[in-house]
Amino acid sequence: MSNNDISLKIHLEEFPKEKIEKILEEWGLLLERNAKENLTNNGSVVYGRLKNSIAYATATHSGETLRYTKDDAKTKPKNYMGKPEKVSTNDENAVYVGTNVYYAAYVELGHINAKTGKNVPPKPYLKPAVMDHKDELEAIAKEIMKE
Description:
Blueprint: H1 17-41, H2 49-53, E1 55-59, E2 64-68, E3 84-89, E4 94-98, H3 104-109, E5 111-112, E6 119-120, H4 126-131, H5 134-146
Antiparallel strand pairs: 1-4, 2-3, 5-6
């Protein structure tokens, strides 16, 4: 992962592979939606580039995780997401939620404005996407395990 990635992992206990895959997919959809809603609700959406770039990827013990890299985005159209790149062959079960937009970390964590020197406070959207919905994530896993 590059320094511009903000990723949150949620690890699963050992469950049957098909259940793990379904849980990870459901969690990914929920977390992506939550992060996008958080950006809208905290006033961070101006043009929508960051919001539209948020995506999730799942990884299982036998899977590979792909992400989009910034590569030569300066020469590409504004909505260019980058080229897919293998992050790793995983030996864990996880869902990754993030973006390749360079200023994502500045929004999430805050920063000092280069022009004014003033502190720009953080507007977290990824961390709350998980932390504010732990019960919902647990309920999804429990429901899928009952199937």
